[in-house]
Amino acid sequence: MNYRRKISFILLALMSCSLLLTGCWDQVEVNDLAVVTMTGLDLTDENQLELSVNIARTSSQQPQENSDSSSGQLTGKSVILSTTGNTLAEAVSKLQQQLSRQLFWGHNEIIIFGEKLAKEGIAEHLEFLLRHPETRERANMFISIGSAKEVLSLAPQIEHYVADDLLEMAKLQTGLNITLKELMQMMISKSQAAVIPCLIIETKQDHQQSYPFIHGSAILKKGKLAGLVDSSTTRGIMWARNELDRGTVTISPENSEGYISFQLLSSSTEVIPYIHGDLWRITLRIHTLDDIIENTTDLDLSVSKHIEELEMELEDDIKRRINKALTVAQEQMNADIFQFADAFYRKYPNIWKQNKDRWSDIFTKLDVVVEADAKISRPGGTGKSILKPNQE
Q1: CA distance 338 to 276
Q2: What is the helix (H) or strand (E) element at residue 216, kind and residue range?
Q3: Which parts of the sequence belong to the Spore germination GerAC-like C-terminal domain (predicted)?
Q4: What is the DSSP string of 278-299?
Q5: Which of 7, 58, 126, 363 has the smallest number of CB atoms closer than 10 Å to its CB?
Q6: Per-residue pLDDT tens for 107-140?
Q7: Residue 239 burial by CB count (10 A; 0-12/13-18/19+): exposed, middle or buried?
């Protein structure tokens, strides 16, 4: 009797385990997929949306035939396809109709908006991207100065695909690194303002090759392009938003000719909101730890006094960059790209609710105090520059 019970228990356990097994009825072979690695969105002269995609090409895959609504272009290890539509969903549907493989968006790591489209607004196109189940929320977002399609058509500089080049640039923090999820969070925040890195195309001297690279950033207000800022201002934005973890800062000391370059080891920014009556204030406290990696001045960096002076000058440089970014955001564009509104909402929810309709006016007059604390960890392998024999 016990033997029968044991056998019944084993059979029941095996049958229960089989319920957890998965089948292959809905499997899709890799050879049946058109893997999208990069997407570009532009606005045509006819006011239609132009969708361009970069599809990874296998050895057996060939570019599609040109047609009235879709074009194919072979670029290295990828195929560039484009089509137009009234909406992004319609453009995707048209593109799928002309492909022998199923579009797969799970590896789409780069999404680029053309400058013309960004001026008209990108919110409705984000709706499709965020709703589609295959879209990666970690995809990096860019705005192209010019056409997004042109960026897709460029040959990669070092990596196998242009998308990989741009992805690695973003990781190295040569500029802002904004994902689809972060862009969505900024656009639905209390400030409804966002900032995205910009792409420009650089042509080599021989005019044979052109490559995209990150230069400056674009400021969006309520989903529309409000203006562009340079790389120096972007660095100030990154400091204020607590998004700067690495990088190089070069200053020219006041009391010495030449330059000193610092490598940023770590950085943190604390945002402190304060309200008292009609006074609205934000205090930014920045703490950085740096190494000196180059010295072309006459300063002897083994002298502690010189190190302290350099720390103060580095702090002044940080304040200058952040204040420049604040001037652009408050006075020129009236766009709260620093998410100060959310900081006030979290600390003073009741006061915020009473004044949220006035935030646009409050932001332009907002008192922002910038405090910087820079520490030099190591002055380098030698205190004196080997090229400057007469040093102080």
Answers
A1: 21
A2: strand 210-221
A3: 216-380
A4: TEEEEEEEEEEEEEEEEE-SS-
A5: 7
A6: 999 999 999 999 999 999 999 999 999 999 999 9
A7: buried
**What confidence tens digit (pLDDT) does each residue in 359-389 have?**
999 999 999 999 999 999 988 766 666 666 5
DSSP character at residue 66: P
Residues 6+ apart with CB under 8 A from 367: 279, 280, 281, 282
**CA pair distance 193, 216, nearest whole angstrom:** 17
For β-strands 78-85 and 70-75, DSSP reports them as antiparallel
Alpha-carbon distance 323 to 368, whole Å?
9
Amino acid (1-letter code) at residue 69: S
188-202 in b/e form (b: 16+ CB < 10 A) is eebbbbbbbbbbebe
Instruction: Give the model's pLDDT for residue 59.
Output: 55
For 309, the 3-state DSSP assignment is helix
Provide the CATH topology of domain 242-392: GMP Synthetase; Chain A, domain 3 (3.30.300)
316, 163 contact by CB (below 8 A): no
Boundaries of every domain in the chain: 31-229, 242-392
The ranges of the chain with pLDDT < 50 are 62-70
Residues 168, 162 contacting (CB under 8 angstroms) = no
CA distance 178 to 220: 13
Q: Tokens standing for 36?
A: 């999208």
Which two structure tokens, joined as six digits, stand for 255? 């009391």
Q: What is the largest CA-CA distance in the chain?
A: 100
Amino acid 31 reads N
What type of residue sits at position 55? I
Report d(CA 164, CA 171) in Å as an integer: 11
279-295 β-sheet, strand order: 248-251, 260-276, 279-295, 367-378
Q: Within 10 A of 59 (CB to CB), how many other CB atoms are there?
A: 5
Closest CA to 198 of 226, 176, 222: 176
Region class of 208: left (phi > 0), else alpha (psi between -120 and 50), else beta? alpha
- Please state, in angstroms and rounded to a whole number, the distance separating the CA atoms of residues 294 and 377: 14
Q: Which of 229, 167, 170 is nearest to 195 (CA)?
A: 229
